[in-house]
Amino acid sequence: MRFRCTTDQTQIKNSSLCDHSGTMVYWLFLMEEQDLSDRLTENPMKDTKENGTVTFSQFSSSVRTMVRIRQKYQAMKKRRLEITTASASQILSSQRSTSPKVFTFDDIPINSNPSSPRKRRKRKGRVLYPNSNLRAVPTKERSQAKNCLYLLCVIVFLQIYNAIENLDDHVLKYDLDGLEKTLKREVFGQQEATERLLGHLQDYLSTYVHNKPLVLSLHGPTGVGKSHVGRLLAQHFRSVVGDQLVMQYFVLHHCPTEDDIPQCIKALSNQISITVNQAEEEEKIPLFIFEEVEHMPGELLDTLRDVIRPQNNNEYLNAIYILISNLGHEDITKFVLHNSSVSASGPLSLTQELTPWLRNYLHGYHQIFQEVELIPFTLLEKSHVMDCFMDEMSREGFYPDRSHIERLAEELSYYIVGELEFSHSGCRQVVAKVNLL
User: What is the spatial distance between Cα 71 and Cα 311, in angstroms, rounded to a whole number?
Assistant: First the structure.
């Protein structure tokens, strides 16, 4: 058996050892061992070449050299492994004690079998906070924003309170409570109509700034109190805003013939313009009352419609217009007589039942009624006519004898429906009857 240790084999071993050690010190040690083994085996190899055979002593020396080299390599490898492990543990302990944990992907296990299903990790319910030395401690300083918020709330409260006080002052200036007492004392049988009238005035006079004027149209048969309400409104507003800001327009008096229509249109426009401009300077709301609107020509109605439109200037928007007419009185009379049974059991509501039909009728009459609020007046009963006699006799200085009043009331004509009696002419003939006493 022949054994030969060639240079190629040694280079292979040296390369493997170099790969494991990775240091120049080990290379130097290996070269010294190689030189020693070459010197020991030089003569035996020569003898081998000469004789052609290998002796036992030559073979054992080679084996001993290889065993010694392997033992030294294992000892050096073990020593280097211990040094590396000790230094790694020192570095890890120092990092744990001085620095926080840093998340990395090094420790995440890689699934070697991609076909196997992944197990979903359950999310922990508790919240993980950083180390205590990194927590931010809130300061006890009070924020300045709260003070600004409190100041803003106080300012808004004062503004609202001031606005409410101004509204109360504006309504008190027109003395609507006094007007209500006057209407209740002198207007009979029209409780629903007077309540609607006062409600519209209360809402409109609560403020001075408006987006459109207040236009009220009073409708009803003859003698039910429409013109009387207009006179009471004119008298009351003259006492609170002045004579210059109240205008009563009687069509048959101011524009009696058709030839006067162009002059009437010009005069009406000028008078309304002067009145609203003066009211704007005095910061008051004027009142315009138009009697006998059913006799007003279409040209005058067109002029009045252009005045009350919301597209006009601000001074035209802060005004109250009262239109008084008997348009639709026949239908109002039929409605009251037809529903007299309901009236016997309770008050008859003209606003809810009659107003929608009356509005459709007035829209066909003229377009001005599209901008108005309708207030229908009902028929007067016999008891209301007797109240009119008593009031008129008291004004004229007569003693209000009950039997005398009933005798005067019997002289008038009535619609008789069951136990109810409605006057044909209302209280219109009361003044003439009292003047004959």
Answer: 114
Q: What is the pLDDT of residues 75-93, one digit of tens each?
A: 888 888 888 887 777 766 6
Closest of 391, 428, 368, 353 to residue 192, by C-alpha: 353
Do 241 and 284 form a contact (C-beta atoms < 8 A)? yes
Distances from the Cα of 127 to the Cα of 135, 137, 436, angstroms: 14, 18, 103
Crossing angle, helix 56-98 and helix 24-51, to 10 degrees? 170
Which one-letter amino acid corresponds to residue 374? L
* CA atoms of 94 and 340, how far apart (whole Å): 106
d(C-alpha 212, C-alpha 206), whole Å: 14
Q: How far apart (Å, rounded) are the C-alpha atoms in residues 433 and 437?
A: 7
Q: Is the separation of the CB atoms in 373 and 212 below 8 Å?
A: no
Q: Which two tokens stand for residue 312?
A: 């006009």
> Judging by beta carbons within 10 Å of its beta carbon (0-12, 13-18, 19+), is residue 99 exposed, middle or buried?
exposed
d(CA 263, CA 256): 11
> The whole model's pTM is what?
0.61
